[in-house]
Design goal:
The chain has a single domain, classed as Spore Coat Polysaccharide Biosynthesis Protein SpsA, Chain A (Alpha-Beta Complex). Helix 4 crosses helix 20 and helix 9 packs across helix 12. It has an eight-stranded mixed sheet, sandwiched between helices. A two-stranded antiparallel sheet has the order 8-9. It starts with a helix and ends in a 16-residue tail after the last helix. By secondary structure, it is an alpha/beta fold. The chain contains 21 helices and ten strands. Its EC number is 2.4.-.-. Keywords: Cell membrane, Glycosyltransferase, Membrane, Transferase, Transmembrane, Transmembrane helix. It holds the Pfam family Glyco_tranf_2_3.
Length: about 475
C-alpha cells in the first residue's frame, strides 16, 4: 500500500514539461488514500458504534431515572428556567439548520470563465517551518490551468528555522521567472508575510494559499471566476479537504468535519453572500477590497495587543463590513495538512476559538447597521447563531459539570444517544457525496470532540486576549 508521500511523489516527479507533470488527478489521489486502512481505524469505528449503541440501550433502561430528573426540574425554579432556555435554543438551532439546508440546496458554484475574461492574479504563499511541503505547494500552483501571463506567484519565507528556504529555492530553480521568492529577515508572523505579498502584488485579484496545501489544476480559475461574474464580490473561499486523511485517526475524523464545514455550511453562507471566514488554505480577494482595509488589518489589535492570529477571519470580516459579498466555490478544491496528534489539534482549535471570539465582537459593531445593500437578515442570523454558541459555551460547561457530579450515567448515556441522532446528518451528507465507509468517521469525531475538546471554547473565551500561533513549530513532515 502506498503512503501519502509516495502518492504525492508520483505527481511531483521531475520532468521537462511542468504543465503536464503537475496536472494532479485528485480522484486517483483519493483512491490511493482510501487504500490505506489499518486495524486501529477499524477498531476505533467498531468501538464507536458499540459505545453509541450502549448509550442508546442505557437511555432505554434508565427511563424511570430520566422521568424522576424531569420531575425534579419542573418542580424547581432553576429547572423550569433551564427547560425554557433549552427549548428556545433547540427551536432556534433547529430553525437555523432548516434555513441553512434551504440555502445549501439553492447553492450552485460559479463555473469558470474563459481565459480571456480571467483577471490578472497574484498568488501569495507565506511559509514558516514547512520544509518540503512548500515545494509541493508551489509546484501544484504552477501547474494550474491559468493563463501564465496573468499569473504572478510569490512565496515568502517568514524567517523559518528549518530547510523551508532551501525548498523555495529548489522550486525557483524549477519554475524560473514564473516564481518570485522572498525571505523575511526574521519571523514576524503570517500576517506580516501576507502583507509583504499584498504590497508587491500586481494582480487584480489576490489569492492566498497555505504552504502545506495542494491545489487542483482548475482551483485557481474557479476561485477567481466569481469576481468576474459578480461585481459585488469582495472575497471567495476555497473548498478545503484534508490531505493527510489516511495517515492517522484524527485527520480521518477531521476530513468529515471539513466537508461539513465547507460543502454544507459555507455553501449556505455563500447563497447569502456572507461566508464568515475565507480559509488560509485557499482564498481569493479583490485587490481594491484588500487595499481598502489593509491599514486596519495589519495594525489590528485586541485588548491593546497586536493581533497575530485569525488573519483570515479578520480580513473576511473587514470585507463584509465594506458591504461586499463573500462567496464560496465548492469547485475550487484544495487539500491541506492537519494535525495528526491531540496536542497539535487542540492548539489549532484554541487559535480558531480565540479568533472567533475576537471577530464576533468586531462583527457585532456593524452587522445590525446598514452595512450593505439588500437584505441583511441572513448575515445577521449567521452572526447570532455563532454568537450564541460562544455565549452559551460556559453555562453549558457548568451545567455539564453539575450533571457529572450528580447524574453521571444519565449525562453520558443521553449524550451518546444525542450524538447517534445528530451525527447521522453528516454521515448521510458525506456518504452521498463521497464514501459510505468513510462517512462513519462523523460518529467517531462527534464522540471525540464531545468528550475531549468540550473545553476549547470556554478556554478560548477566557484567554481571547492571548497571542501566539501555538502550532508553529518545526515541521516534522517530509
Amino acid at each position: 500500500m502506498k503512503s501519502e508521500t509516495s502518492i504525492l511523489k508520483q505527481f511531483y516527479s521531475p520532468s521537462p514539461d511542468i504543465s503536464s507533470i503537475f496536472r494532479i488527478n485528485f480522484r486517483s489521489l483519493k483512491i490511493g488514500f482510501k487504500r490505506n486502512s489499518s486495524p486501529l481505524a477499524a477498531l476505533v469505528l467498531i468501538g464507536t458504534f458499540l459505545l453509541l449503541i450502549a448509550g442508546a440501550f442505557l437511555v432505554y433502561n434508565l427511563q424511570s431515572d430520566f422521568e424522576a430528573l424531569h420531575i425534579d426540574r419542573v418542580n424547581s425554579a432553576w429547572g423550569i428556567s433551564f427547560l425554557i432556555l433549552t427549548t428556545v435554543l433547540f427551536f432556534f438551532y433547529g430553525s437555523v439548520f432548516i434555513y441553512n439546508l434551504y440555502h445549501y440546496l439553492a447553492y450552485k458554484p460559479i463555473k469558470s470563465v474563459t481565459d480571456e475574461l480571467l483577471p490578472t492574479c497574484t498568488v501569495i504563499v507565506p511559509a514558516y517551518n514547512e520544509g518540503k511541503l512548500v515545494w509541493n505547494t508551489l509546484i501544484s500552483l504552477a501547474a494550474s490551468d491559468y493563463p501564465e501571463h496573468k499569473l504572478q506567484l510569490l512565496a515568502i519565507d517568514d524567517g523559518s528555522k528549518d530547510d523551508t528556504w532551501y525548498w523555495m529555492q529548489e522550486a525557483k530553480l524549477r519554475l524560473g521567472d514564473r516564481l518570485s521568492i522572498y525571505q523575511q529577515p526574521k519571523n514576524q508572523g503570517k500576517r506580516q508575510a501576507l502583507n509583504r505579498g499584498f504590497e508587491m502584488g500586481t494582480g487584480e485579484i489576490f489569492v492566498t494559499v497555505d504552504s502545506d496545501s495542494i491545489v487542483k489544476v482548475d482551483t485557481l480559475r474557479n476561485l477567481v471566476s466569481p469576481f468576474v461574474t459578480n461585481k459585488e464580490c469582495g472575497a471567495v473561499a476555497g473548498n478545503v479537504q484534508v490531505l493527510n486523511n489516511q495517515k492517522a485517526i484524527l485527520p480521518k475524523m477531521l476530513n468529515i468535519s471539513f466537508v461539513m464545514s465547507f460543502e454544507f455550511i459555507r455553501s449556505a453562507e455563500s447563497s447569502l453572500g456572507s461566508v464568515l471566514c475565507t480559509p488560509g488554505a485557499a482564498a481569493a480577494y479583490r485587490k481594491s477590497a484588500v487595499l481598502a482595509c489593509l491599514p486596519e488589518w495589519i495594525n489590528q489589535t485586541f485588548m491593546g495587543k497586536p493581533s497575530d492570529i485569525g488573519e483570515d477571519r479578520a480580513m473576511t470580516n473587514m470585507i463584509l463590513k465594506q458591504g461586499s459579498q463573500v462567496l464560496f466555490q465548492s469547485n475550487a478544491l484544495v487539500l491541506t495538512n492537519v494535525p495528526e496528534e491531540y496536542t497539535g489539534l487542540y492548539k489549532m482549535f484554541i487559535r480558531w476559538g480565540r479568533s472567533n471570539v475576537r471577530e464576533n465582537i468586531m462583527m457585532a459593531k456593524y452587522v445590525f447597521k446598514d452595512f450593505r445593500n439588500g437584505s441583511k437578515f441572513g448575515t445577521r442570523l449567521l452572526f447570532l447563531n455563532q454568537s450564541l454558541k460562544i455565549i452559551m459555551a460556559i453555562p453549558f460547561l457548568l451545567f455539564m459539570v453539575f450533571l457529572v457530579l450528580t447524574h453521571p450515567l444519565l449525562l453520558i448515556s443521553s449524550t451518546l444517544l444525542g450524538i447517534l441522532i445528530l451525527s447521522s446528518f453528516p454521515v448521510l451528507f458525506y456518504a452521498k457525496r463521497y464514501s459510505i465507509l468513510e462517512s462513519f468517521w462523523a460518529y467517531s469525531y462527534s464522540v471525540f470532540y464531545t468528550f475531549s475538546l468540550f473545553w476549547i471554547m470556554p478556554y478560548a473565551i477566557f484567554t481571547a486576549n492571548k497571542s501566539g500561533w501555538l502550532t508553529r513549530g518545526l515541521s516534522q513532515k517530509e
